[in-house]
């Protein structure tokens, strides 16, 4: 059985590396003439720079992946896991403390291993291509804040879940799921007010005329956001974005200041209309419901497998603590999850297309969104020529060239617009 799991893991690793390789080759050799919408925005020099940026990221990612694979094999199949499990048990026999210690130390080790890569990406790779605007002091401050927030959430969620396992050994899967649902919804309410301001400064829109247009668009879409804000994302990166966040009375529109620099008002409104489309089409609600149903299923499967005591034997081990078995279960889940990625990506692309159609309905055409996306691709050095297979597996959005062509041909959907108006 250990050989079977090792073989599956190695097979998945080979598939991942093969997909990366064909995508790199296609990006270098499969360049096609760009549609007219890209004229004057992206030329051959910009494409060469985009290729160089993507290739530099690929190289760093390859080193990270090889290191992660080597460490995973050593930990699971090299005898480190049972040693580590016994070592933790030698410090405490408290069920909750030992579980938190087991996963907390692993998370700390993972963080330490990832620090050199994070530093390199920010201060070498992103700096080289003009994206990094973060000082080392700010990077350290963000790291410390993330550690503090992560530690609090880890202790709350992990400790609470372990306590429920101890209190209700025959039905903990249901209690743990319910506990996580409550905490997740609670964080959705609190995050815009307690967590996000720790990293970013939110201020009212600097352009008064833009705020009026944004609120008109919100009213037209039936979204009553409490605040329309811009965020100082330019302190950290040259990348740009916009989002519609929150639930209930804490909904808010947030525009990156970098986005406001790169797009004109009409393009900004089209991008925002797309984000509103996700909310208006129920994508956020669907995603929340789907994730909670999946979490419920995972909790039940975890309870069933952990109760069977079969997990240690699957890796050729005699016994492991509860935390050790949960670790094995999570790793097996990641193997299964790899084959779910194409389905999830397809579902996401479907939602993106629906949000694009909503934006067309709101602003009257797809021209503004198309031109805005082209500008963002130029500024972000996006890969315009992914391999079709790679895009099918990993892309959560339709490939940009295909998306822009669709937007330019897109028309107002009278049926969906009539339905939307009726819902209003």
UniProtKB/TrEMBL annotation:
Binding, Zn(2+): 274, 278, 352
GO biological process, one term: CAAX-box protein processing
Keywords carried by this UniProt record: Hydrolase, Membrane, Metal-binding, Metalloprotease, Protease, Transmembrane, Transmembrane helix, Zinc
Residue span(s) of domain CAAX prenyl protease 1 N-terminal: 24-201
A GO molecular function held by the record: metal ion binding
Cofactor(s) demanded: Zn(2+)
Active-site residues, Swiss-Prot/TrEMBL: 275, 356 (proton donor)
Free-text cofactor note: Binds 1 zinc ion per subunit.
Transmembrane residue ranges: 6-24, 66-84, 96-120, 141-168, 174-195, 293-316, 322-343
Taxonomic superkingdom: Bacteria
Pfam families in alphabetical order: Peptidase_M48, Peptidase_M48_N
Keyword Chaperone in record: no
Domain Peptidase M48: 205-407
Family designation: Belongs to the peptidase M48 family.
Protein name from the UniProt record: STE24 endopeptidase
């Amino acid at each position: 059985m250990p050989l079977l799991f090792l073989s599956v893991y190695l097979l998945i690793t080979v598939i991942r590396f093969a997909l990366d390789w064909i995508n790199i080759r296609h990006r270098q050799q499969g360049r096609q003439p760009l549609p007219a919408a890209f004229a004057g925005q992206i030329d051959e020099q910009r494409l060469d720079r985009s290729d160089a940026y993507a290739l530099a990221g690929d190289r760093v990612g390859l080193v990270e992946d090889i290191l992660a694979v080597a460490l995973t094999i050593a930990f699971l199949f090299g005898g480190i896991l049972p040693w580590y499990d016994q070592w933790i048990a030698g410090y405490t026999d408290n069920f909750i403390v030992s579980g938190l210690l087991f996963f907390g130390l692993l998370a700390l080790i993972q963080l330490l291993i990832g620090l050199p890569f994070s530093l390199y990406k920010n201060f070498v790779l992103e700096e080289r291509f003009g994206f990094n605007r973060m000082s080392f002091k700010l990077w350290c401050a963000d790291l410390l804040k993330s550690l503090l927030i992560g530690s609090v959430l880890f202790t709350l969620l992990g400790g609470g879940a372990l306590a429920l396992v101890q209190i209700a050994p025959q039905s903990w899967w249901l209690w743990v799921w319910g506990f996580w649902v409550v905490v997740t919804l609670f964080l959705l309410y609190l995050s815009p007010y307690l967590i996000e301001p720790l990293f970013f400064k939110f201020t009212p829109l600097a352009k008064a005329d833009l705020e009026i247009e944004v609120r008109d668009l919100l009213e037209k879409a039936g979204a009553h956001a409490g605040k329309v804000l811009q965020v100082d994302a330019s302190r950290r990166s040259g990348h740009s974005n916009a989002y519609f966040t929150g639930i209930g009375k804490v909904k808010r529109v947030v525009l990156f200041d970098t986005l406001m620099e790169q797009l004109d008002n009409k393009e900004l409104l089209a991008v925002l209309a797309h984000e509103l489309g996700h909310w208006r089409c129920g994508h956020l609600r669907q995603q929340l419901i789907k994730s909670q149903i999946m979490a419920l299923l995972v909790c039940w499967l975890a309870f069933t497998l952990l109760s069977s005591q079969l997990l240690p034997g699957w890796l050729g081990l005699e016994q492991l603590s509860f935390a050790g078995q949960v670790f094995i279960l999570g790793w097996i889940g990641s193997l299964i999850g790899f084959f779910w990625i194409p389905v999830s990506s397809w579902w996401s692309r479907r939602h993106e297309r629906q949000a694009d159609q909503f934006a067309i309905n709101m602003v009257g055409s797809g021209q503004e969104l198309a031109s805005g996306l082209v500008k963002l691709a130029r500024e972000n050095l996006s890969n315009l020529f992914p391999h079709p297979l790679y895009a099918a597996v990993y892309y959560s959005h339709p490939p940009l060239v295909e998306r822009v062509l669709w937007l330019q041909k897109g028309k107002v959907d009278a049926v969906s617009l009539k339905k939307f108006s009726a819902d209003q």
